[in-house]
Each structure stands twice: as structure tokens, then as C-alpha cells.
From TrEMBL:
<comment type="function">
    <text>Catalyzes the stereoinversion of LL-2,6-diaminopimelate (L,L-DAP) to meso-diaminopimelate (meso-DAP), a precursor of L-lysine and an essential component of the bacterial peptidoglycan.</text>
</comment>
<keyword id="KW-0413">Isomerase</keyword>
<feature type="binding site">
    <location>
        <begin position="231"/>
        <end position="232"/>
    </location>
    <ligand>
        <name>substrate</name>
    </ligand>
</feature>
<feature type="binding site">
    <location>
        <position position="66"/>
    </location>
    <ligand>
        <name>substrate</name>
    </ligand>
</feature>
<keyword id="KW-0457">Lysine biosynthesis</keyword>
<feature type="active site">
    <location>
        <position position="75"/>
    </location>
</feature>
<dbReference type="GO" id="GO:0008837">
    <property type="term" value="F:diaminopimelate epimerase activity"/>
</dbReference>
<feature type="active site" description="Proton donor">
    <location>
        <position position="75"/>
    </location>
</feature>
<keyword id="KW-0963">Cytoplasm</keyword>
<keyword id="KW-0028">Amino-acid biosynthesis</keyword>
<feature type="site" description="Could be important to modulate the pK values of the two catalytic cysteine residues">
    <location>
        <position position="221"/>
    </location>
</feature>
<feature type="binding site">
    <location>
        <position position="203"/>
    </location>
    <ligand>
        <name>substrate</name>
    </ligand>
</feature>
<comment type="pathway">
    <text>Amino-acid biosynthesis; L-lysine biosynthesis via DAP pathway; DL-2,6-diaminopimelate from LL-2,6-diaminopimelate: step 1/1.</text>
</comment>
<dbReference type="GO" id="GO:0005829">
    <property type="term" value="C:cytosol"/>
</dbReference>
<feature type="binding site">
    <location>
        <position position="13"/>
    </location>
    <ligand>
        <name>substrate</name>
    </ligand>
</feature>
<dbReference type="GO" id="GO:0009089">
    <property type="term" value="P:lysine biosynthetic process via diaminopimelate"/>
</dbReference>
<feature type="active site" description="Proton acceptor">
    <location>
        <position position="230"/>
    </location>
</feature>
């Protein structure tokens, strides 16, 4: 079986995008993982699959598979790549589309200057819905946010980190650090990802506040490891920063692979994510 694909990225978070409307695509988790493998496959942080919608009022269905082959609920940088892909492939003539995802409907918009903004929906903040098991834990209030203590076993020593928990459709634990470059992302990222308090695992964000509208961010992604940028991670970090009283919307987010912008007007309002989407090459692979 041959599979046509497009390789894309958003601020260095890279994707294999597959049109499952005009070709038949039914792959197992092991096959997705093989395709995303950087040595045995094409290589990508995530695979994005474009399908016909199943919900009325939607233009497309968008499925997301992590590098480890697992299907997940949401991907912000991928949503921008998705809208560029469907426009470039002539799958739609609309500049604003409604896209069905595993965690609800999102609305990406192609701007006149080529930039892409995605309405990612409102963040979910109730710990149980993130999901985060806060049972028996004492949180600390900061602004209108609650910081939760997570115990980690770091290199033989016990350490407690304080995290905000936010769902952007997918789960995030965000901590504020003094310097993202020296933060122990490789060490504590996997421990946070698999921490037993997160029943569906979690994306671990490390945010350095540079000013009220400017942060640096690194994210150790669930199912993919550290990526050069994480769109939903940027949204979650800015929501946490605003709730903690550290940031004002809109916020520039510097990731290792590029720059994103996140705007949020507060409780109940949608988060708007803006940033680049780039097509790298097209190919066909025999499975
Ligand atoms: N890179 C993404 C997020 C992809 C999914 C994530 N790893 C998860 O498992 O939730 C983004 O740009 O949002």
C-alpha cells in the first residue's frame, strides 16, 4: 500500500499530514509510530489525518497521532498546518473553517498576511476534568489559580514542583522557572508526563516570564518528548500565567523553534493561537 503525505511544521513542531479523504488510510498504532520514527520512517512529532466530518456544521475532521502511535485530543500547531494543508490541496476555498477534533470543534482562520489564527476554545480548569487527581492534596492560591505540588524523584533526590493544571482539550501541567535553558526539562519532563496524579499522562510546560506580555517556553510533550514548540502548551502556559497574575493578553511566546502569540480574554473565553505553518516537502511511502 502506498501513502501520499506532506511534511509540515509549525515553529519547528513537525508533522506528517495525510489526506484520508482522497486515499484510504487505515493504519494501526504501530504503523503510525513507524511512520513518525526519525530513523525507520519519515520522522515527525505528530501525524495529522484529514478526514470528512461526522458532525453537522463542520468542514473536516482532524485526527492527531503522537510520535508514539497514540491518538490524542488536540494539537495547536498542527491545527495551523491543517488549515494550510486543506487550502493548498484545494480541499476547501474557505479562509475560515470548522474542524471536528477528538475534544470538540476548533475554528482556524487563514489571515490575509498568510498567518494563521486558531480559536482553540475555552480552557478547562477544573482539576478533575484536566484530568488531574487532586485528592488529598493542598493547593496554594496564586491570583485566581491554584498551584499543585507534584513530588518528583529527581536523580536520587525528592523534589516538589508547583504546577498549574490546564486542559486545552489535552492535559497540561505548567510550572514557572527562572531560566528555561537551565530547567531540567529532560529529567523532570518524563516524570511529570507519567506522574500518577495524571491518569491520561500530561504535557509538561516550563515557562520563564520575561515581561507581562512575553515568555519563553519549553514543553516536554506527552507521547513525543520535548518538541521545538507546542501550540496547546503555549495556550496552557499563557492561561496559567494570566490566572496567576503574571501576564496580560496578548502574550508573545518564544519557543526553541519559533514564535507564537496567544490571546485570552479570561474565564469562559476562547484562547486564540497565532503562528506560522510551513510546508517542507511532499512524498509517497510504501507501507
Ligand atoms: N504539539 C502539539 C500537541 C500534540 C499533542 C500532545 N503531545 C498531547 O499528547 O497532548 C501542539 O502544538 O499543541
Amino acid at each position: 500500500m502506498k501513502l501520499k503525505f506532506t511534511k509540515m511544521h509549525g515553529a519547528g513542531n513537525d508533522f506528517i499530514v495525510v489526506d484520508a479523504i482522497n486515499q484510504q488510510v487505515e493504519l494501526s498504532a504501530a504503523q503510525w509510530q513507524r511512520l513518525a520514527d526519525r530513523r525507520f520512517g519519515i520522522g515527525a512529532d505528530q501525524i495529522l489525518v484529514v478526514e470528512k466530518p461526522t458532525l453537522p456544521g463542520c468542514d473536516f475532521r482532524y485526527r492527531i497521532f503522537n510520535n508514539d502511535g497514540g491518538e490524542v485530543e488536540q494539537c495547536g500547531n498542527g491545527a495551523r498546518a491543517f488549515v494550510k494543508f486543506v487550502a493548498e490541496k484545494g480541499l476547501t476555498k474557505l479562509s475560515s473553517i470548522r474542524v471536528e477534533t477528538k475534544s470538540g470543534v476548533i475554528a482556524p482562520r487563514l489571515e490575509a498576511d498568510g498567518g494563521i489564527t486558531v480559536d482553540m476554545g475555552a480552557p478547562v480548569l477544573a482539576p478533575a476534568e484536566v484530568p488531574f487527581d487532586a485528592d488529598g492534596l493542598a493547593g496554594t492560591a496564586q491570583g485566581v489559580d491554584t498551584l499543585w505540588p507534584l513530588e518528583l524523584e529527581l536523580g536520587g533526590a525528592r523534589e516538589t514542583v508547583l504546577v498549574s493544571v490546564v486542559s486545552m482539550g489535552n492535559p497540561h501541567a505548567v510550572q514557572v522557572v527562572d531560566d528555561v535553558e537551565t530547567a531540567p526539562v529532560d529529567l523532570s519532563g518524563p516524570l511529570i508526563e507519567h506522574h500518577p496524579r495524571f491518569p491520561r499522562r500530561v504535557n509538561a510546560g516550563f515557562m520563564q516570564v520575561l515581561g507581562r506580555r512575553h515568555v519563553r517556553l519549553r514543553v516536554y510533550e506527552r507521547g513525543a518528548g520535548e518538541t521545538l514548540a507546542c501550540g496547546t502548551g503555549a495556550c496552557a502556559a499563557v492561561v496559567a500565567g494570566i490566572r496567576r497574575g503574571l501576564l496580560d493578553s496578548p502574550v508573545r511566546v518564544d519557543a526553541r523553534g519559533g514564535q507564537l502569540s496567544v490571546a485570552w480574554a479570561g474565564a469562559g473565553q476562547p484562547v486564540l493561537l497565532t503562528g506560522p505553518a510551513v510546508t517542507v516537502f511532499e512524498g509517497e511511502i510504501t507501507l
